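Weekly structure sync - notes
Attendees: PM, LS, DV (DV joined late)
Agenda: review two folding runs queued last week.

Item 1: First target. Sequence and structure tokens pasted below for the record.
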Amino acid sequence: MSPETVVAFPAKADVATASSPPSPKAFERLWGKNVQQHGYAAIPSIMVRAQHRLGVNTTQFCILVQLLEYWRSPERAPFPTKQQLADRMGVKQSTIKANMAALEQAGLIKREQHKTSAGDWGANTYLLDGLVARIKALEPEFAEEKRKREAARRKVETPRGKRGE
């Protein structure tokens, strides 16, 4: 084999990339079948990687992740109580309330109040359209960053004489 020969790395089967979630098989291998049986939430990688760009603090980010974990279907917005969120996160209900207000002011969530059949106020429904729109708006930036990373990787993987420099 000459020093200019490029040998491609073999494709790794069942490997998740930053742009693709792990397959159920990969998830099971990572976490185990017992953990997998309890399900997992779909959190866009852009949201994780763009926390700062979204302008949310760690508590607000955790609230958004919790809401996403409750969001099972596009047709049915999540509706946990503030107390449920506080219990899950180990914080006071007042912390949830203040951070929910900040998320709403930032346009990432919208709260809709509902009355129970008894006439008192029930849990809010949380519309996440603002968050979804912001994540979608960030996607072109991430696509460009990905394109640049892939071009840099190809350049490094290609021998100098074959780069077209």
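Item 2: Second target, run right after the first with the same settings.
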Amino acid sequence: MSDLTMNILGFPAVNRDLTVQVRDPITQNVVREVTPFLDGTVRVPNIDPGAYEISLTHPNLALPVLRRPIRVLPIGDTRVSVVIDPSQFKNTPIEDIPEANLTPVRDLATSVSETVTPLTNKLPGEAILAQDWNSLASATRDLSNAFNESMQLVSPVGHNHPEYEAKFDEITTNFTTLLNVLSSALAELQRQIQTERLRQQVLNVLDTAQIDPASPQGKEFLDPIASLSSGITNSPTQFGRDVRNAAVQVSTKLEGLIDAKQSDPNFVNSDQVKTLSSALDLHKAQTSTTYASELQYQRVLDRNLGGGLLNLTK
């Protein structure tokens, strides 16, 4: 038995709410579940050496904060350091911009009023002296400067609101992250539904051909489907490649079975064989590289093969 020590770095504020799960990388069964100390230290004593997957979860997040494979060494204390991304927990309040102090501007405008007041008593035909003209010009200049200053204080140039722009950028990032999480979760759910439907279609063909699913021939049909189930969480590109490979393998077996059953037209022309053949042709065309395109592909499958979950629950 060995001991595993982990250090969680990156965002100490969430350490108290994290849960660390040590999982079997193949079955995904939880081998050990522990809570880290406030400093991010995690101690897992007496664990068998070998390959594992660690998963960090937080109650406020739908998906794990972090997942990564590790290997516990057979000798000594295995030490692992992981860094979590603080942006997953970011929710910055809108910046409180101090109110502009308009008192100096107001005082300047008041002084302009006081300066020009004596010039309002001129009588018709009375001369405007240079001193009066200069006072009026200076007052106009001061009033213009006061107006310009007030515009700078009340609203920045271009009417920007940097505190709102920063918050909108953060909301956009958070929404994009949430959308990616939901898209991946929905795609993985659809993968399970489509994989189970394909498995059921294969079982229907084996039943029509009177082949035991547990027999070697039955396993040749079902093993490629089982491999899809183990790769549900793969990337869209990898899962699409796995789907195509499995469809090609099952299609080859189906063609061989049809050739062997040529003397049985009831089997060759059965609805079960036609349905599986159509499904395999659609799966061979799986070329999705993003979760969005994969969900569109899953909709195509549902339109051609019928509602997946509803059919499976019947």
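Discussion on item 2: Residues 7 and 158 are 48 Å apart (CA to CA).
Action: LS to circulate a short write-up before next sync.
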